[in-house]
Specification:
The protein is an alpha+beta fold. The protein has 7 helices and 9 strands, in the order E-H-E-H-E-E-E-H-H-H-E-E-E-H-E-H. It has a single domain, classed as Hypothetical Protein Pfu-838710-001 (Beta Barrel), CATH 2.40.320. The protein is globular, with a radius of gyration of 17 Å.
Amino acid sequence: MKEQELKYAIPSLADYELLCCKLSGFQNEIIQTNIYYDTENAALLQQHIMVRLRLFNYCAQLTIKYNPQHHNGYFQAEQWEVDVEREEAEVFEHSGAFSPERLGSMPKEIQTFVQPTLIEVGRTVNKRRIYHVGDLVLELDFLTINDQITDYELEIETECPDAAKQYVAKICENHHIALKNQPHTKYERLLLHSAKKHL
């Protein structure tokens, strides 16, 4: 499965709140806790592999993204994702341990790098508002990183970035918001924040 999405950085809380009011097609709002994992020597990061446990609405998902690419805010990556029961999620959250069955179900090209037991790298909490506009799915995110820093983002899942970019350009023009192409994924921003803490 391939993930394809546009990511835009929202410059301020005021602009985020304006978009909350002005975007049409609101569907629902969810709170996501995202927990990221790697080996002790950051072997997954070196191979551009991300491992994430996501908890939301009494649900849980395990996700691995790999072979990432991005250009001008358009991000693409191969993605392995499974829904897991909360009991399994709680075990993984605290141990970082994959069951043999989970390891066996992963694509063979990443099995070599994903060790049976990983350690937590950090976590984010994301308030996500979801909108449907025509064929587009828009996700308006209020992100808290390691309980310390917040930022704001608009994501659009799409295989046709040009049409989505036109829609965003109209939003910016109509509401005088200067959205910018997001240069980093949420995981990358978490790592950047953690690195700055240790300087």
